Amino acid sequence: MAQTKTKSGKPEVYKNYIGGRWVKPAGGSMMENRNPADTRDVIGLFPASTSEDVAAAVDAARRAYPGWKATPAPRRAELLYRFGQILVERKEEYSRDMTREMGKVLKEARGDVQEAIDMTFYTAGEGRRLHGYTTPSELPHKMAMCVRQPVGLCALITPWNFPMAIPSWKMMPALVCGNTLVIKPAEDTPLSTINLVHAAEAAGLPPGVINVVVGTGESAGAPLSTHADIRLVSFTGSTETGRRVAEAAAREGKICSLEMGGKNVILVMEDADLDLAVEGAVWGAFGTSGQRCTASSRLVVHRRVYRKFLEKLIERTLTLRVGNGLDRRVDVGPVINEDAVAKILGYIEIGRNQDGARLALGGRRLEKGAHRHGFFIEPTIFADVAPGMRIAQEEIFGPVLSVIACRDLDEAIEIGNGVRYGLSSSIYTRDVNRAFEAMERMYTGIFYVNSSTIGAEVHLPFGGTKATGNGHREGAMNTSLDVFSEWKSIYVDYSGRLQKAQIDTAELVG
Fold it and tell me: pTM for the full model?
């Protein structure tokens, strides 16, 4: 495949978006972005931004904030509705761009863009709500109520695996609440976030309300998250990086919302529909090449059906076609980059040698023929895995699945909860009592019955427990609005005299 070039024969050059203008990085340095399915294909050159660019973007957000905050929320919502409609019109174009830069198969890229559409329309509905509440005062001739107010300037730091959906989870509630923002997309997938901002620009959002600075975490993400004018940092990424973000935010008293890793589990009971469970396991483990924080990286299977299930699982996985996600015949695309290849292959070696698990399928990098210019790894299954093995405990973030045997539901739940993360879990069973027991006892933020661990919907809270996050949730309005707004309690005393809460109340009771 030839490089994508302009009429001049050079790769497309992209810019930062600051104060309503597309501008070159202050230092002039650029980064190449290549297609992970075919590294000969240059997506474009993107800014290698530094703290100077971050400062300019934060200043633009600061200047835009008073006007955006003063814009009535229903008017902000009208712009979001227009924003969503533009995304609908451009869905196919943006989906193809996403597959080229991220690698996920086209049908999944369309789902990613659709999630941004859903989040935009869903959030816009809050422009005529943003509910606070009134409540009776404990004193006569006095009204008590509370309202939401924006937090101010927000830094959004987003990952590469859902390069339009996850930015939308953060961006839309931040905007409808009246905040302005600076977003730093992952350096592997900046084009999808730039496309999202092109749609916002076309919708007529005022200059400075949204700003984009492209760069690495070290050169752009760190100065953004620690900038003195930033009030809130919303981060999605690895647990290790998230911990550093939280520590920096705590030192400066910033609001910090974290969404981090997962080591998700599907429990398969002996009464399960095994064919259905196999489909869920394959989709959960190998969809997006296993590069989802909700990926089904562990399968805990009742020992009565373990061998039969494993045979079916291997047989189904062998039918998966690995290749370029723009090919409609392909089921599994590449992983994101060479570092990811090295990490995943390293864990496969750990599983085979250090852990001593049985490699039942896959385990190799694909490097010949159509795969020779990309980052392709075979869908990999380890069998007879023990719960304490590293491959069953640590997040691999690739197409690697560990299958563990259990003797009953109690042991399955114990294994399921026995990791540092708590994002998503699932059970396959025909027994409603078992389903509800697992639903209650699994300590995760998301739980599925007779479905895989992936496939969250925007109107329910998204997030997890333990090392997965810090208690905040994205998605559903009550939870996401609580991140991007602060409460203000208001008391209106029309008694004409000084009334003293608690003190005067005691006198009234007496």
Answer: 0.95
